[in-house]
Amino acid sequence: MPKRDYYEVLGVARNASDEDIKKAYRKLAMKHHPDRNPDDKSAEDKFKEAKQAYEILSDSDKRAAFDQFGHAGIDQQAGMGGGAGFSDSFSDIFGDIFGGGGGNRRDRVYRGADLRYNLEIGLEEAARGTETKIRIPSLEGCGACHGSGAKPGTQPTACTTCGGHGQVRIQQGFFSVQQTCPRCSGTGKMVSDPCPTCHGEGRVKKHKTLSVKIPAGVDSGDRIRLGGEGEAGVNGGPAGDLYVVIHLKEHPVFKRDGDDLHCEMPISFATAALGGDLEIPTLDGHAKIKIPSETQTGKVFRLRGKGIKGVRSHAPGDLLCHMQIETPVNLSERQRELLRELEALSPGRNNNPRAQSFMDKVKSFFNQ
């Protein structure tokens, strides 16, 4: 039987936030947990299915692999099956609300938070790729206390509220509910003599400089992941990741549309009427196009392969030049005379076909 889409299992959209995914899993886990549905094989299967969906979608790397390749991108050995991991995810979210399997929390470690950095680059840098340095603030493990939060030479002690378990038990109706200890925040430890460097936090705020390689063809919204460069974990847990989000600066000449580039080219009235050669800019230098006579405003000339080759593209896009006929200004008296003479010599359909066509449509409209 084929596996269901994980987003469908949890009933969330593909762009759902981490919090929405967590809430959806909490709701399904409460509904189908085996302790609330004894001897109900169907509920157990649904619980396992929801658990697997949450384990995949709550992990940024696994979620990205599933989004791109579906179930084929996920390690098949991490299947739904049981074993000791049956209630791990449930315990993480509910604090062992049904008891059993949560274990002692005094040594539990927590992964550091992921960070986001918005990086603005120019169109040329995006097209060719580049390498740049960024300076970011982050939380790193305190070197003085090695992340314990206790003054060097001392050790944290067991929390007096939860006895070092990290949780307190509260009776709610028919259920005995375990919740994170409010005093030690689930660590099971207390620091009576805090480290003077980190003030008992176990982490310190620092700035670090990182080198980021920008691949050729990136576009606004693309993300570059720097693994382990996020905030430091708690109690020695792994660091989070840093996501560099690309934003393109506005370019004075070109506008990007996917792999294509667009530009507006002003041409003189004489060139548009008589034709000629026009030199246009590209990202690789200059190119020439031949303007045929009687060119109208809005005419588009396409230069194939003069756009950008995207990160996932096999070939570069095109450059589309939009002609804009420019009305002359600051005319001399002689120029005005010549234009009046031209106007007198151009009264009919042959010289002004679009204007004549428009007037024909106007007459037809009023004669209806």
Keyword list:
368 residues; alpha+beta; Helix Hairpins; HSP40/DNAj peptide-binding domain; four-stranded mixed beta sheet; 9 helices; 26% strand; elongated
Q: What does the model show?
A:
With 368 residues, this protein is of the alpha+beta class. The chain has helices at 6-10, 18-32, 41-57, 60-69, 88-94, 123-128, 269-274, 333-344, 353-366; strands spanning 115-121, 130-141, 157-158, 167-172, 175-180, 189-190, 203-214, 223-226, 242-248, 255-257, 260-268, 276-282, 285-291, 300-303, 319-326. The protein folds into three domains: 6-94, Helix Hairpins (Orthogonal Bundle), CATH 1.10.287.110; 107-145 and 199-249, Sandwich (HSP40/DNAj peptide-binding domain), CATH 2.60.260.20; 255-366, HSP40/DNAj peptide-binding domain, CATH 2.60.260.20. β4 and β5 (175-180) form a beta hairpin. The protein is elongated, with a radius of gyration of 33 Å. Residues 76-106 have low confidence and may be disordered.
List strands and helices in order, with pairings.
Elements: H1 6-10, H2 18-32, H3 41-57, H4 60-69, H5 88-94, E1 115-121, H6 123-128, E2 130-141, E3 157-158, E4 167-172, E5 175-180, E6 189-190, E7 203-214, E8 223-226, E9 242-248, E10 255-257, E11 260-268, H7 269-274, E12 276-282, E13 285-291, E14 300-303, E15 319-326, H8 333-344, H9 353-366
Could you provide a short overview of the structure?
The protein is α+β, with helices and mostly antiparallel strands and 368 residues long. Helices cover 25% and strands 26% of the residues. Strands 10-11-15-14 form a four-stranded mixed sheet. A three-stranded mixed sheet has the order 1-9-8. It has a two-stranded antiparallel ribbon with strand order 2-7.
